[in-house]
Each structure stands twice: as C-alpha cells, then as structure tokens.
Amino acid sequence: MTKNLKATLTVVAVVVTTLVAVFLLSRTTTTDVPSFTESSAAGAAVVPADVLVREDSHRLSTAPEDAVTFVEFLDFECEACRAAFPAVEQLRAEYGDRVSFVVRYFPIPSHANAENAAVAVEAAAQQGRFEQMYQRMYETQAEWGEQRESKADVFRGFAEDLGLDLAAYDAAVADPAVRDRVLRDRADGLTAGVQGTPTFFLDGARLQPESIDDLRRELDLALAR
Fold first, then answer.
1. Domain ranges (residues) in the chain
2. What span, in angstroms and rounded, lies between the C-alpha atoms of 78 and 202?
3. Could you give the CA distance from residue 84 to residue 23 in angstroms, rounded to a whole number?
4. Which residue in 21, 20, 45 sits closest to 202, CA to CA?
C-alpha cells in the first residue's frame, strides 16, 4: 500500500468518525411520545414491521426476502442527519446486497424547510429520482438549511439540474396527496416512538449507536441470526 493511499484512507476514516460524533452530539429532538413494550431477544423495544415499512416506503437497497431491514427516520434540514449521511452511505456500500435500507421522512416542525424538502424529494421520487434528490439535499444543506424563508425555488432548481419534467414536478409539489404521503411517514415515526432525527431501527428494534462501528456490529449480529 502506497503512502498516499494510506494517508487518503486515514483521512476518510477520520472524517466519517468525526461526522458520526457530530450527529450523536447534535441529534434533533421533538416531543415525547409513547414507546412499545414488547422486547426483542436483545432487550430492545420492537416496533411492528407494518409501522416501520409500508408498501410505498422508499428503499435505497433491497435484500433477498428483506432478511435484514435497516430503517432511518430523517429530516433533510437536520444537521445531525447530514452528519450521519456519509456513514449511512458507507454502510450501504458494505451491506447493500444483504440488508434492505429504508428511508422514512420525519420533518421536524421547527425546521422551516424540512417539510418542503421532503415534498421535493417525494416529487422527484414520482419520476424515479428519489435517491438522487435525497443525496442532493444533504450535499447542499449548508446552502439552504437553518433559514426561515421558503427554499422551494432552490429545490425546484435541483429538480431542473436532475433533468426532471418540471411540469410534472410542479404538479406533484402542489398536490396535497404528496404532502400527505410525507406526513404519513412522520405519523408512523411518532407511532414508533421516534423523538428526534436521525433515528435508526434494525429489524424492528431501535438502535442507539455511539459510532459507525456500533452500527456495523448490530448489522453483523442481525445477519448472523
């Protein structure tokens, strides 16, 4: 291994570790909600599968027969979610053919553009570009996040950059059913006991990781069962 390659890998590891630490320290919270009492073998509360994953839930990858399912409730304006994004992408690269990675919207009401961002992503999803818009939101969050005025025009610009049919995109953004779809995800999150973002579930059990290695360990255990 060359010195340059070693140095590059070290930098990547440091960046991922730092970002995970940031998301753990800055995780956005919302109101308290009830939690489930049924327990898994590991002692964590278990949420019914039909609450965590709906027929129309967005999947970043799908494992054979959904043997292991990893669900994230997220807010595109949440800085902690942005910090966790590279770690989730790394896990997808490592486990994506063996683990179903599912994304659920959970816009925090105090974030002025969180719901609009989710609606924009859902509108892109109707044209088969969910993942691209999902990634674009995190890549550009520093440009539009933490601002009180609507950034709907900025999100429309993302749609244009991705080559979407803008007439269809505009119609989707204006369609109450699209916003309702986003809010149904949030309602499921509340039912599941989500109190902030990002919140992760693995096979129905909520995870409380302190590092990306914690997530790897849980995924390895789930795959071994």
1. 3-224
2. 21
3. 6
4. 45
**What pLDDT score was predicted for residue 165?**
98
Name the region of 45 (left: φ>0; alpha: ψ -120 to 50; beta: rest). beta
Tell me the pLDDT tens digit for each residue of 28-72.
555 433 333 333 334 456 899 999 999 999 999 999 988 899 999
Residue for token digits 């309702």? Answer: 180
* Beta pairing partners, 206: 201
C-beta separation of 22 from 84 below 8 A: no
Sign of the alpha-carbon torsion through 211, 216, 86, 3: positive
Q: Which two tokens stand for residue 41?
A: 């073998």
User: pTM of this prediction?
Assistant: 0.83
Superfamily of structural domain 3-224: Glutaredoxin (3.40.30.10)
